[in-house]
Write the structure tokens for this entry.
Amino acid sequence: MILDAISKPSDLKRLSITQLKELCAELRNEIVRIVYKNGGHLGSNLGSVELIVAAHYVFDIECDKFIFDVGHQSYAHKLLTGRRELMENLRTVEGAAGFPDPSESKYDHFIAGHASTSLSAALGIAKARDLAGLNYKVLSILGDGSLSGGMIYEAMNNAAGTSNFIVILNDNQMSISESVGAMRRYLSKLLASRGGLSFRRMISRLLSVLPRRLSKQIETFVKGIMSAIYGNNIFEEFGFQYIGAIDGHNLEELIKVFENVRDVATYKPVLIHTLTEKGKGCPEAEHDATKLHGLDKSKGNRFADVFGKTIVRLAERDSKIVCITAAMKTGTGLANFAIAFPERFFDVGIAEEHAVTFAAGLATQGFKPFVCIYSTFLQRAFDQIFHDVVLQNLPVRFVVDKAGFPGNDGKTHAGLYDVSLLQNFPNFTIMSPSSRMECERMVEFMANCDNAPSAIRFPKAEATDYDVECGDATKSRVVAEGSRVLIISTGALLEEVLKAVEISGTTPTMIDARFIQPFDFATFYRYAKTHEKIIVLEEGVWGGVSNVILQGILDDGQMHLFPKLHFLTASKKPVVHASRTEQLHVSQLSAEALAKALIE
């Protein structure tokens, strides 16, 4: 294998074009094998192989900086930068992270787990280079789905005049699902005007050899002619030199374009528009690019699936229910809702801030918006939740998916902070189901919660079926009455508690605190006063459930309970990429760790 001889990026430079093409095929096979073994992102990594190989072949990666947006495209980069052994155990404690991470390799210059960040980061690196008087290229490898995020345009608005700043737009018409919005339509329109592309390229070559003053005058003149014939190019309006569109799987063409950009000193940033196919080289991924965006080894009936089925059932009876997501239709369980109620389903792209304020606007007109976003991405809309929803006490319903430990996605996707953020807001209901039936009841409760904002949070885990009907769903559920030790758990951690009790042979009192806020203090105090120890479990960092309970005790003058309290929460240190079970164990929240504590 040619890949066996690649230990560092410079090894590519001695290969022929034929060998580079063979290398691309080997990389695809290796990515498919690794992802089917460990899980991970498949389609986007397969689609970017030639881009990565050509960029590593042409540019000097020992000096030039590659910034990814998002890290979904970085597997070939990792395989070419001395990390084959780490990639063998991708997304595990012993292996490579699923996203670029500077702590993992000197060839990763910025962490990239969230979208639409690369241009801002790359521009900062480019300006730092200029201030330091250094000379290297800064490249941002950008997926077209990231163009739906507002940060991209904030960065473009400040990029004009930056030299040796190159953006490679990987346009596969997809983010996770199909890319949406006006920018997607614009890129399609831009491709339809390809009759002018050869003329654009000819003018670009001419400008590159003319004096700067003269070339700017000619560029302005030609730009007016091009605009009249083909319409304005938004990237050029932002001050970029636009090159494209080119075949992102044609290695010879990519190398030629990259070499031209490398060798010609420009006085403006350059955007190279490439067309790729998501899932390229894997028939299964090519056929279903959404499903094969990534492979997840988890099985069963996810909480997100339970939510999806429940919201369809409720929407059949209530025409005011609408659902909003930020490019996560399938992941948040909304695929069936989108089919059943297309006019009431809104995918706003990678624009979480807009999603929240858009929902607030809907709520002012009597609609019942459900905003369905992963916990890690909801953080991006913290100000909108406070300013646009909470201050007006609008009944926006937040479905916080992938809350808690992120599993193999690692620290960039940790959902450990949402309760700590949301519990600070007044009149904000926060719920966490421990089972399928609780999830269904909580979604029904939210549909009828018309006087305040509310949120339901659940992990990337299977929704178990154990349940009992018990009166007021807003009150904590006493799962079992015991002695000495009182265990308060929220959400799916109840499963760990039940296993721990079985392992330890102890008989604690177990309470499922279904409502984190408002917390059921009546039930809590009734049992707290008769037990010697109180253990509070939280699948989140300190400051969520723990803070709600401590603040309530202080307000109620029950400080005598403080010596009894023991809080078990996630560490504030970033989690490692591992299974959710392993992450629970490290934080002493697994069944085995809790059983040991109960025995002691």
The mean pLDDT is 88. The chain is about 40% helix and 15% strand. The longest helix spans residues 17-38. Residues 534 and 565 are 5 Å apart (CA to CA).
